[in-house]
Amino acid sequence: MKRKFSDRANWRRIIRKSYSCMQIDQKEFHGILTFYRIHELRDPLYKVYGGKELCLADEGYVWMQHFPKGEHFVVTTMFDRDGKVVQWYIDVCKNQGLTEQKVPWFDDLYLDVVVLPSGEVFLMDEDELEEAYQAGEISYKDVQLAQKTASRLLSMIRNGKFRFFTLSMKHKRLYDKAWELSES
């Protein structure tokens, strides 16, 4: 199982970035919200979904992560330089936490759900989940947790009850206002 950190301190592709983290305790969201703005990078990051190539990381892109308290998933919303959503990437995880330096992390349970603005939904990395189980890296209980969480996420998305689509837009506006103030 891989532990992933929101500040992506070891991401070699990135040359210069800005990073911020805040605790939110509101009716609609309890948890941690992070922002990762890419200023300069070695090479853009591309991924193909359903035969379409998408740019996920380039100069001016912002990755916002929601770490909802008590949940077994983390939502990364990727925005292009014009502030448009490129994708929502939902990592299924076993645990979430904070380092001593207050950097959020999660223990990745391999399964991921990708949602594109077009409404297309992809369940990713089922093979990685099985391989991790066969290799003894995770338990059968972890596999069940991952599958149950992914199933619940897919159901919420299909039924229009996945609130992070609208929350990401609301929280991005807060970030944009703060960013504008810091630049002036």
Describe the 3D structure.
This protein has 184 residues and is an alpha+beta fold. It is 26% helix and 45% strand. Strands 1, 2, 3, 6, 7, 8, 9 and 10 form an 8-stranded antiparallel sheet that branches. A hairpin with a 5-residue loop joins strand 7 and strand 8. The N and C termini lie far apart (43 Å).
Sum this structure up briefly.
Strands 1, 2, 3, 6, 7, 8, 9 and 10 form an eight-stranded antiparallel β-sheet that branches. The protein has a two-stranded antiparallel sheet with strand order 4-5. The chain is 26% helix and 45% strand. The protein is built from three helices and ten strands, in the order E-E-E-E-E-E-E-E-E-E-H-H-H.
Largest sheet, if any?
8 strands, antiparallel
Q: What is the H/E string?
A: EEEEEEEEEEHHH
Distance between the termini: 43 Å
Please report which band the strand proportion falls in: under 5%, 5-15%, 15-25%, 25-35%, 35-45% or over 45%. over 45%
- Runs in which pLDDT lies below 50 for 5 or more consecutive residues are none
Number of discrete helical segments: 3
What coarse outline follows from CA principal-axis ratios?
A: globular
Query: What structural class results from the helix and strand content?
Result: alpha+beta
Mean pLDDT: 93
Total strands = 10
Q: What is the C-alpha radius of gyration, as a whole number of Å?
A: 16 Å
- Helix percent band: 25-40%
